[in-house]
Write a structure and sequence with these properties.
The complex is a heterodimer of chains A (about 425) and B (about 120). Chain A has about 425 residues and is an all-alpha fold. Chain A has 20 helices and no strands. Chain A starts with 20 loop residues before the first helix and ends with a helix. Chain B is built from 4 helices and 6 strands. In chain B, the strands form 2 sheets. Chain B has a 4-stranded antiparallel beta sheet. Classes of the chains: A mainly alpha (about 425), B alpha+beta (about 120). The interface between A and B is medium-sized, with 33 and 27 residues.
Chain lengths: ~425, ~120
């Protein structure tokens, strides 16, 4: 080993790495290796990538960060994968490798001519293939494209790690057995295939924006990863459709509000009470720009409408200036396009804001029996808020307590308890002595 | 000014831990090692550092009148030397202060750092 001081040679002086470099590079490398080795060899691709990252972890602290960290990592991962390929005996599996793989192993000169961006995109479509289940879509995308570990996926989806691990094993087996291809779908299939991918991305974003449980309400890194994935799709002319721009706009606009959504203690702040000076203006502008691009053509997806609603909030000077009638009209359009109890619930909030709490409550009553909402804590929580605003504290208490009995994140639980305490205090103060 | 060798020892666990780690965790850990190294280098304390290759080595002994060479020590054996840092500090107390927040012992439960001052023969 060299005896020279570590700062000689090729290392970066303050040894800083771009945030999430390893995670993003992992996704790119797995995709590129899967292109080289074939989707049947995903496990080998993942092992080779893990090896390369491990090697970096062990050597960069001593040797310094290379000038081209991604290039270094990919070179090591690729060599590791090709070494394994060379040493394996010719088995039945080996005969199924794509043509040219043996030539590639013997060449090994790095002249693959593959564009990194394309593979990750193709990988997203393969992970969201309709032949696989929705739960598999999420697990595969997070593992293979986003570079999450099984534990991190379990954490993000509030599932148990062994279940996630099993799902990945099964999904990869499906990919092998069905011989799914690692490629961007043809234009005539793209629309439908894109729908799947966008749904997964939006699911990921929502888990980061409003967690279903756990200690944090907000996980900004999940939102950022969802945005990154959408940008990947929007950045390729082959796949950039208006619905992609609309989803990107929606996520950017909602993301802009995150700094004000939870306070320093992680406690929830309602939209009406948020300090709008803390909204990220760059994200708002970026979101509005993408909303403009989404308006090209005639396609109107639910994302278009949701983004337009988010834009209404983002451009209102303050809570009181919000154009609720306009938002209500947008919700009417959304309910027609994507009828769902959750959308109807959100519309009821707009009804209450535009026409008063009692009318909002009537809208809520019309969806109150929907089984989909039976375990959804926001239904009674919203009802509680409206009853309180309508001047019926006892009813408000009843609904807030019902909300508390359902599953939600810790900050939301604290929020509900606070409302309950406040109302109880008001009631006891008003009670005859 | 005195020189010290900081010897990092593992009992094999770190490698097993690391193979299961997520890319994000690995980067976080690497960041800690690099930050520690950068801090010491900038303050002028770090002279050199190297990692030793894992899972290989030779051990020489003399037995029955001749030199024998065996393969080893291996990672499976306890307390294998994984790497070293050569640092400069006035004395043990100062050197200890420099290494007590070293990521190696912060991150790995059964790892250890051995600190040994280099004998300076020019000193009386």
């Amino acid at each position: 080993m060299s005896a020279g001081p570590p700062e000689s040679g090729r290392h970066a002086p303050l040894a800083g790495l771009v945030d999430h470099l390893f995670r993003h590079a992992a996704g790119e490398m797995v995709a590129a290796l899967a292109r080289l080795l074939g989707p049947a060899r995903l496990d080998l691709a993942e092992e080779a990538v893990q090896d390369a990252l491990l090697r970096a972890l062990q050597t960069w602290p001593f040797a310094g960060v290379p000038d081209n960290p991604r290039g270094w990592l990919f070179q090591v991962a690729r060599n590791r994968a090709l070494d394994r390929v060379r040493h394996e005996t010719m088995s039945r599996e080996a005969l199924q490798w794509p043509d040219g793989i043996v030539d590639l192993a013997q060449r090994g000169d790095g002249s693959d001519g593959v564009r990194i961006g394309d593979e990750a995109l193709a990988m997203m479509f393969m992970c969201c293939d309709p032949a696989l289940g929705r739960a598999a879509h999420i697990a595969l995308t997070l593992k293979l494209v986003s570079g999450f570990s099984v534990e991190e996926i379990a954490d993000a989806s509030l599932e148990r790690a062994p279940a996630v691990a099993q799902r990945l094993v099964r999904a990869k087996r499906e990919i092998r057995e069905r011989r799914l291809a690692l490629e961007i779908p043809l234009p005539r299939e793209l629309g439908a295939r894109l729908e799947s991918v966008l749904e997964v991305i939006y699911l990921l974003f929502n888990e980061g924006y409003a967690a279903h449980g756990g200690e944090s309400l907000v996980r900004a890194d999940l939102c950022d990863e969802a945005i990154r994935l959408a940008r990947l799709i929007a950045g390729n002319p082959q796949t950039d459709r208006p619905s992609v721009e609309a989803l990107l706009a929606l996520m950017l606009l909602q993301r802009s509000r995150l700094p004000a959504r939870v306070d320093a203690l992680g406690d929830l702040t309602l939209l009406a009470d948020q300090d709008r000076s803390r909204w990220d203006r760059d994200l708002v502008e970026s979101g509005l720009r993408h909303l403009g691009r989404a308006a090209a053509g005639t396609e109107v997806s639910p994302y278009h409408i949701e983004a337009a609603i988010a834009a209404q909030h983002a451009t209102a000077r303050d809570a009181a200036s919000t154009d609720w009638p306009a938002i209500l009209r947008l919700y009417d359009d959304l309910v027609a396009l994507k009828p769902s109890p959750v959308v109807a619930l959100n519309r009821a909030v707009a009804v209450a804001m535009a026409e008063g709490p009692d009318i909002g409550i009537r809208a809520l009553e019309r969806i109150g029996d929907d089984p989909v909402l039976a375990q959804y804590h926001l239904l009674p929580a919203v009802r509680g808020g409206l009853e309180r605003r309508a001047g019926r504290p006892a009813e408000a208490l009843h609904h807030y307590r019902a909300a508390l009995a359902l599953r939600c994140s810790a900050p939301e639980r604290r929020f509900l308890k606070r409302q309950i305490r406040e109302i109880e205090d008001e009631l006891s103060r008003a009670a005859p002595q | 000014m005195a020189q010290f060798l900081v010897l990092a020892r593992d009992n094999g666990d770190p490698r097993r831990e690391m193979t299961r780690m997520s890319p994000e965790e690995m980067q976080r850990i690497m960041g800690k090692y690099m930050a520690w190294g950068a801090r010491l280098r900038e303050a002028g304390h770090l002279q050199n550092s190297n990692k030793l290759r894992d899972g290989e080595g030779r051990v020489l002994r003399r037995a029955a009148g001749k030199v024998t060479v065996t393969d080893g020590p291996f990672v499976e054996s306890k307390e294998v030397l994984g790497g070293y840092w050569l640092i400069e500090a006035p004395d043990y107390a100062a050197a200890l202060e420099l290494i007590q927040d070293h990521p190696h012992i912060e991150l790995w439960p059964n790892a250890s750092l051995e600190l040994r001052q280099i004998h300076d023969f020019t000193q009386r």
